[in-house]
Known about the structure:
The protein is an all-beta fold and 315 residues long. Helix content is 3%, strand content 32%. The strands form six sheets. Strands 3-4-5-6 form a four-stranded antiparallel beta sheet, with no helix packed on it. It has a four-stranded antiparallel beta sheet with strand order 7-8-9-10, with no helix packed on it.
Amino acid sequence: MHRISNRITRRTFLHRTGLTAAGLAASGLASSRAFSAPAVLTAPIRSQAKRRPDLIDEKSPPGLEVVQLTAEPDVPSSHLYMEAQIFAPDSKRFVLHRSASAHGGSRSDPKHQYLLCDLEDDYSLHPLTEELGATAASVSPDGRYLYYFVDETTTGGGKLTLKRVNLDGTDRRTIVAIDSPLPETSFRPSKLYPLSTISSDGKRLAISAFLGDGQAANGPFGLMVFDVEKGSVRLVIHGQTWCNMHPQYCRSTDAEASHDILIQENHGCETDARGGITRLVGGEGADIHVVRDDGSNFRNMPWGRDGNEACQGHQ
């Protein structure tokens, strides 16, 4: 989908299409609901794409084309959140997810899975995951792999698994499984953030999680960095204010810059004992930092929390 004219807001566009945050859902189709959707798709889906000239008006940019990709009447599908790395480098293939909103799917929902959309194959959809709890997908910079997590964690326990699969759905591998405290810590990750970020060289993957033990409110959150070649993980930063980190790796291919991660700190954040956010940010507001993926070289970005401007939206 091409960029919408700035004269039409995202909210207005979604209202016109009859869609909610699950932006690719087939809302309002006249299909019968007599037959429920399968829990898991196992074969490619073809010929669902539908061009929607009814969503274009005289204010739309010349040449704009809107294509509806999915058509399951009782299962919403969505793009991944805006900072997720989900396109292959040729921009001809990208990953979306089924039974989800842009913010993610439920780890207990058997219908939630990641699909590859092939734009040159009439927008065909190809299942990439089948596991319950699949989350936080990232496409490798070379377009060869999809990395994702299988979240079977509980507060202070359970298991977290990092997996990799080729973009054609073959050669699924487990990179590392965590069922004990993170190395050199007493922390067990849970309540995984629904977005991961991958380094520009494809060697490291970062994601945040709740680290509390469920015994007290306002427990810590932290940023984990996975070495996908070594199958290892390390905790690089943690604390109570990292409840909504939005980690993003630097896209530079420079050897040093490729280790930098942009992170958001929510001052005044409050959570319950299980990591549920009860207050996202306090009066001090949020600010943005950069940290090297080994936990060193922590830097402050020069905006926000000065009484004049505030960080809002996405970096």
